[in-house]
Amino acid sequence: SHAQIGLIGLGTMGGMLALNIAEKGFDIAVFNRTTKVTRSFHETAGALAPKITPCESLEALVQAIAKPRAIILMVPAGEPVDEQIAALRPYLDADDLIIDAGNANFHDTERRAAEAEKQGPRFLGSGVSGGEEGARHGPAIMGGGARSDWDRVAPILNAIAAQFEGTPCAGFMGKGGSGHFVKAVHNGIEYADMQMIAETYGVMRDGMKLGATECGEIFAKWDEGVLKSYLIEISGKVARTADPETGAPMLDIILDRAGQKGTGRWTAIEAQHLAAPIPVIEAAVMARNLSSRLEARAEGEDLFGTGPEALPDGALSAEDLEHAMIAGKILCYAQGFELLRAANAPFDWALPLPEIALVWRDGCIIRSAMLDDMASALSDAPDRNLMFAPFFADLLKAHHGALRKVVSTAVAHGLAVPALSMALSYFDTMRTARGTANMIQGQRDFFGAHGFERTDREGKDFHGPWAM
Ligand code: 6PG
């Protein structure tokens, strides 16, 4: 028993993570339910094979790992995780540690952490982001559970994580399900970033009549500026790739129906539970859901006439879109971080917002140049909404006009831009000291005597002289 860590589940992500661990010099024991997969994984591990012990039973895996053991689970989220924990438990000691590195719903992680407290073994829920490439060469890691358990495996997790200028993109988020909650918010932001990019692509394609390659070139240019990020970079690549069979741009032959495993939806659901406003993320989830209504959309086009109209020449420039995207992105991230903050009291967490921004700087899907500035802004004033941080407030002052121009132009020509629209409405609401909820309060008092506060007097329970 010499392995420093074990890993169960040699699917794409699990296999890549195991190779990453071996490459960083750790001895690792691996197990997959299907023995053939375990064997071929080891056979194809090349120079890393000597660091990897392939195990053909759970018992063999447990025996191969040095005590106190640490075992990473990389099995599909949901029931398979519970089944795997139950199957392992008889072989493990109370101070052995199971690390769930899949995309768990953080409520499940909370429950598993509580069960582990009662009956052992130890349990850490770790969000891991970065897709295949990240798992292989450096993901971002968001850990949750007991600090002492995190500290025990931190040397390995820090070593395999992406490194941003020498700092590992791995961090301890707090107890229970906090790591997986932070990962869910990451995915919500991921959905929103992707949606806003898709919307600017739609304006270019349908409004400005640009071809996919031209759109790709514009994204590639954005990737050299404030918007520099993995998602902009890959969007540029996606748009410039041709289908080898037909020669047509890939984008032109991909069906416009988006898949989703549900993490973005969990974020929106949780935000509603917490009464945290994240309209850009909610719009992105809505847009994915609506994208699947292909037939209804075709029926709508027949009935109401083609949606998007071409824009008049010069109505919008690529630069307008870039600036709108900058404003939209800031507003979306501001909402995401506000959601993280809103979870602290109800879950009794103290989520380290500046550190979360640091962890997201590299390795994860939403990695971007802006996150470094967000980390600085959040460490200057951890309790301030990011949109009010001087650096981002200045960017918003410079670019909210472009966001308004893009949204209003798109709306006027039938181009759907739900996420960008929500970003703009959030911005407008957040800079309107006197809003319109006085009308809501008047209505509530009228039909239900719910009472209201007054602008001119102290007190909570005033009523109107409503004529019935
Ligand atoms: C990551 C991603 C990843 C996610 C997939 C698919 O951070 O590496 O968020 O965890 O599962 O990208 O997500 P959807 O199927 O929900 O789009």
Automatic annotation (TrEMBL):
Gene3D superfamilies: 6-Phosphogluconate Dehydrogenase, domain 3, N-(1-d-carboxylethyl)-l-norvaline Dehydrogenase, domain 2, NAD(P)-binding Rossmann-like Domain. Substrate binds at N103, S129, G130, G131, H186, N187, Y191, K261, R288, R444, H450. NADP(+) binds at G9, L10, G11, T12, M13, G14, N32, R33, T34, V75, P76, A77, N103. Homodimer. GO terms for molecular function: NADP binding; phosphogluconate dehydrogenase (decarboxylating) activity. The lineage of its organism: Bacteria, Pseudomonadati, Pseudomonadota, Alphaproteobacteria, Rhodobacterales. Belongs to the 6-phosphogluconate dehydrogenase family. The active site is at K183 (proton acceptor), E190 (proton donor). Keywords: Gluconate utilization, NADP, Oxidoreductase, Pentose shunt. GO terms for biological process: D-gluconate metabolic process; pentose-phosphate shunt. Catalyzes the oxidative decarboxylation of 6-phosphogluconate to ribulose 5-phosphate and CO(2), with concomitant reduction of NADP to NADPH. It catalyses: 6-phospho-D-gluconate + NADP(+) = D-ribulose 5-phosphate + CO2 + NADPH. InterPro entries: 6-PGluconate_DH-like_C_sf (IPR008927), 6PGD_dom2 (IPR013328), 6PGDH_C (IPR006114), 6PGDH_Gnd/GntZ (IPR006113), 6PGDH_NADP-bd (IPR006115), 6PGdom_BS (IPR006184), NAD(P)-bd_dom_sf (IPR036291), Pgluconate_DH (IPR006183). SUPFAM superfamilies: 6-phosphogluconate dehydrogenase C-terminal domain-like, NAD(P)-binding Rossmann-fold domains. Residues 179-467 form the 6-phosphogluconate dehydrogenase C-terminal domain. Its EC number is 1.1.1.44. This is 6-phosphogluconate dehydrogenase, decarboxylating. It comes from Thioclava dalianensis. Pathway: Carbohydrate degradation; pentose phosphate pathway; D-ribulose 5-phosphate from D-glucose 6-phosphate (oxidative stage): step 3/3.
